[in-house]
Write a structure and sequence with these properties.
There is one protein chain. With 138 residues, the protein is mainly beta. The protein has one helix and seven strands; from the N terminus they run βαββββββ.
């Protein structure tokens, strides 16, 4: 498989920070600098808009492409199904998603995963990759 990982510009904070669930620690300085009074709960506000905003999926970290004729199996974060994608199809992946490199189906059969979606009890991932959120080191 191949991964295309574009470099995204740093996220800009929303203009409206008063209607957030909490304010992040360390936003006004370092966490123990004294000018940070800690996280706070939202006070009133439009809870309907907040719940809609928090339900949006995070921005994809990359796109993965299955290069072999067998395609590619991807398991989304928090899901149990391995989703199969045809060869050369770009699949957006996010933090916590898993990409199967060696998928066995049925378990303990030594057969490669079928070209279809597979539930967790139908397959065993013998080798794979889990995406983590990138950390910038200065």
């Amino acid at each position: 498989f191949a991964i295309e990982a574009p470099i995204f510009p740093p996220a800009t904070p929303d203009d409206d920070t008063i209607n957030m669930a909490t304010l992040a620690f360390g936003e006004s300085g370092t966490p123990l600098s004294g000018d940070d009074l800690g996280a706070t709960l939202a006070f009133g506000g439009d809870s309907e808009n907040y719940s809609q905003a928090s339900a949006r999926p995070p921005q994809p970290l990359a796109e993965v492409i299955g290069l072999s004729q067998g395609g590619l199996h991807v398991r989304l974060a928090g899901h149990t199904k391995w989703q199969w994608h045809k060869q050369n199809v770009k699949v957006p992946v996010r933090t916590g998603d898993r990409i199967a490199i060696l998928l066995e189906s049925p378990p303990n059969s030594t057969q490669s995963g079928a070209r279809k979606d597979l539930e967790a009890d139908e397959a065993t991932c013998l080798m794979g990759v889990e995406l983590l959120h990138p950390v910038l080191v200065a």
